[in-house]
Amino acid sequence: MIKLESEDYIDHETYQQLRLDCEKNEKLLSSIGFEVMKTTSNLTLIQFYEKRFFSTKMAIIVDKEFNIFVSVHNKHLSENHLIFERTKTIYIFNDLVMFLKKFEKFVVCIGNSDIPYDMPQRNAYVEHDHGAVYSQTIRVNQCTLLTDRTNRCSYCSKFRGTLQRANRKRKPCEVSLTSNRPNSAMTKEYLIEKAKMLKKQCESVEGKNRRLRHEIDRKNKNNEMIEDTNWDISGLVHEESSTLQEVLPDPESFQRLFWEEQIKFNNLKDKRQIRRHPLIVKCEPQTS
Length: 288
Known about the structure:
The chain has helices at residues 5-24, 26-32, 93-101, 154-169, 188-221, 224-247, 254-267, 278-283; strands spanning 35-37, 43-49, 52-62, 68-72, 75-76, 107-108, 124-128, 136-140, 146-147. It is α+β, with helices and mostly antiparallel strands and 288 residues long. A hairpin with a 7-residue loop joins strand 7 and strand 8. Helix 6 (224-247) packs antiparallel against helix 7 (254-267). The longest helix has 34 residues, at 188-221. The protein is rod-shaped, with a radius of gyration of 40 Å.
């Protein structure tokens, strides 16, 4: 049905009057628990969590067609929700106040915040911190968000049994630093335990590094590092001598000559007594 221009004008005036009445009665609305947003194009009222002012609990929007929309934790309520019973549109301030008072009988569904959730579920999702009493919770997709029950809607209550059965079947997940599971798929408790293990590992590595630095400084001070190095080279030369003779059977080869000269050098107690083979001396780089 097409509206006449006069009807449009009346609707506009009615809508502006509704907004004006809300701004005039801010204290009344605040006592109910709602704040008027003056910068939005549609009439918007916000309810914040008491202990965290900028954490939005819910928003009520009345558009310019006088239709009502409610969102809880940034998710819209179904138009079939019990809160909309007998109230689909609002034209005057008194009707709005009566609608807002309905929320006193409802609470935000807490979902299943006390059950570990690291298993993918097609019919559920994880809701992260919105300022409620929980840091995150598991909601079934059909969650009503607002419930007139104790604290959990019927859908999340039913899904709770599914989660509990799945957790009982699941084997305990041991914390491991080598796990390929991404951090985003880990529970808060798992991440805390993993962080503790990483801290212990870092402290252990730092302790080993300190002991190694201390040992190196001590050996450098006593010239033990040179002796240890010489011993390693000497041991290597003697261990590989038989193997080298098989690999280099030609006694005239330069590689064989170099190796034998190295054995002679390592057998000397005083390295200054070494007398190099003429070929070795010829191949040594000349220093200016």
